Predict the 3D structure of the following.
Amino acid sequence: GQSLEQPSEVTAVEGAIVQINCTYQTSGFYGLSWYQQHDGGAPTFLSYNALDGLEETGRFSSFLSRSDSYGYLLLQELQMKDSASYFCASSKDTPLVFGKGTRLSVIA
Amino acid sequence: DGGITQSPKYLFRKEGQNVTLSCEQNLNHDAMYWYRQDPGQGLRLIYYSQIVNDFQKGDIAEGYSVSREKKESFPLTVTSAQKNPTAFYLCASTGQGGRGANVLTFGAGSRLTVL
């Protein structure tokens, strides 16, 4: 089976950097994805790591270490609109399995 | 614009009633999924389909049924056998293998409330 662990809540200051961690246990693993969901909305895709290392997309970066079964999402230059829930998801064939999500609150 | 359309956005059901949630996509994606979201629970997989006329149960399929008669459509029926159906239901799809198979496109969701 697959399971993913991530913190339930994180609070950070506007303009700062925040890291959301995700550890996974999977019997076989293809890659790690990240999704953002604002309250009342649908999740939207942020990034996907199939290989070890850092993937950068604007203010957001995602990291994967297969040897440590660990990944993280890094958000830089935080803005108020980044307040949302962030989900990591692992893939082994299909379909994706999601963590329970991390609620990020950005404060002034 | 390509995307996934879910309807209705809000639905109220009396106990004992079956309701069907619609999901239509014009992305030409082969695979489609239904997830259920409860507060603090993340997304849990109900059913998925990788090809027309075929579908598989997810982790919480009991009390639900689906059909996949057309590539574009994957409706979900919440039956009276589902004892706690109040939730936010999300339909999604993915493209072909590699990165595409790992990028879920979601519909806007359907919020079901049992009265």
User: Anything to note?
Assistant: The interface with chain B takes residues 8, 30-31, 33, 35, 41-45, 48, 50, 87, 89, 91, 94-101 of chain A (CB under 8 Å). DSSP finds no helices and eleven strands in chain A.
